[in-house]
Amino acid sequence: MFRFFTFATIAILLYVPVLLLAQEKNALPQSVHFPIDKSFVIYDYPENESTFSDIHAQIINVIKGKQKKINQINITGFSSPEGNYTRNTKLATERAEKMERYVHSLIPDVKVNIYWVSEDWQGLATLIEKENPAWKEQVTTICYSEKNLVQKEKLLRALSPNIYRTLAKDYFPKLRRTELTIEAEALNETTKHSETATNAPMEIILPATDTKHRPNVSQKKCCTQRKTQRHHNAHLFQANIQQRALKARYGTENYKHKQKRKYILYNEHPTLAIGSNLITWAGFRPDFTNTTFTPNIYTEYYFLNRWSVKGEFAYSNWEYGNNNFQGISSYTIEPRFWIKGDGSFKGLYIGLYGQIGDFNDQTSNGNYTGTYHSEGISVGLIWPLYAGLAIEIGIRGGYQSADVKNYLTQETCEQEVCNKKEYTFTKDGFAISACTLGILYRF
């Protein structure tokens, strides 16, 4: 009897670790981070490189060694709790879907579950509690409150400017992410034989939170084909992981059904732009008469997906040509409406403008100084080139009015009989007030 219990105890002690090994799962999430308002995967984005290395190491070990079986991969997309809720939902889902696409490029027949969190208030509270800043209670109280998301964000922005700047700089970037969890288990002999003997279709399980319906993705390949494909993928991604990732970022990638996806090479959702009008720099007036170069700068703020406001300033105060002189200052404000209301702020726009300024012209035809104002409409288009760089072509026209004074200089009196009287007059009418060929950078 003693021998029986001894053998039974030894058998249990040996069996339990084997059983636990067979059910071992790697449930530690890997976080892939994204820039603000972006959903494309960047391999060399801060902290992403080590994450991708870990993901590839896990997947390649499974593909090559076949000592573990990947049951499923769970991918959750997150957005930071700032900005428009609809936009954040789109970002979170796109981030999860693009990571799913990335995973399926390595292992096509794996089951992937997709989830998303539109605004990660829980994640923000967890980070705050972990870091334990002096203002922890103020922020966590807002995170855990029962108020709606819009009210929460208003309360967050109403905090001290230093607190919100710290959140935007140190906390929100950590929340713009996807979390990828690989669930794998060790293969025992029965599982190995079962996998070899069967070829059940693999499918992507869509969570109940998504209202879209996707078809099941069946992998109708024989075991030899699957084995060959796995070894091919393992060799390909182990040999040149970073090059493929950078290609996906900067070039084009072919996917199933011979479709091509164009990856964004420019700032897809800008907030602010700084630029200058090359025509004004060259000294051309709206009627294309030429004076002297006029430095100018403008800024534009984008908001609510299809609205922007542009402010422009131009100035010159020097001689040109044969004793000619131009002095001018110009201030322009221009709200714009964008036809394509997707937040990309590219393509056609229409707007209203108001302009004021003063001038002082000295030419062979006379000397004139005064002030002016102009109001009217504008139309044009902006097209992104690369990264934040873009070009703008536009035209403004409307009502113009100037209070002009004709005057004589000492030099004029020496050359002519000074019997002419100085006089003032008003000049107004409708005309083109500006043409734009601008180069700008958008952030």
What order do the helices and strands follow?
HEHEHEHHHHEHHHEEEHEEEEEEHE
Which CATH architecture of the largest domain? 2-Layer Sandwich
- Rg, Å, rounded: 33 Å
Briefly, what CATH class of the largest domain? Alpha Beta
The fourth-level CATH homologous superfamily of the largest domain is: OmpA-like domain
What do the pLDDT scores average to? 77
Shape: elongated
Structural classification: alpha+beta
Number of domains: 2
Taking the sheet with the most strands, its summary is: 8 strands, antiparallel, barrel
Number of helices: 12
Task: Give an overview in words.
- This protein is an alpha+beta fold.
- Strands 7-8-9-10-11-12-13-14 form an eight-stranded antiparallel barrel. A four-stranded mixed beta sheet has the order 1-4-2-3. Strands 5-6 form a two-stranded antiparallel ribbon.
- It is built from twelve helices and 14 strands.
- The chain is elongated, with a radius of gyration of 33 Å.
- A hairpin with a 2-residue loop joins β12 (366-386) and β13 (389-406).
- It has two domains: 23-133 and 173-261, 60s Ribosomal Protein L30, Chain: A, CATH 3.30.1330; 272-442, Porin (Beta Barrel).
- The chain has helices at residues 2-22, 48-65, 85-106, 121-131, 136-144, 149-157, 161-175, 189-197, 223-239, 241-250, 278-281, 410-415, and strands spanning 30-33, 68-78, 112-117, 177-186, 252-254, 260-262, 272-277, 296-303, 307-320, 324-338, 347-363, 366-386, 389-406, 423-442.
- Residues 4-26, 189-246 and 249-264 have low confidence and may be disordered.
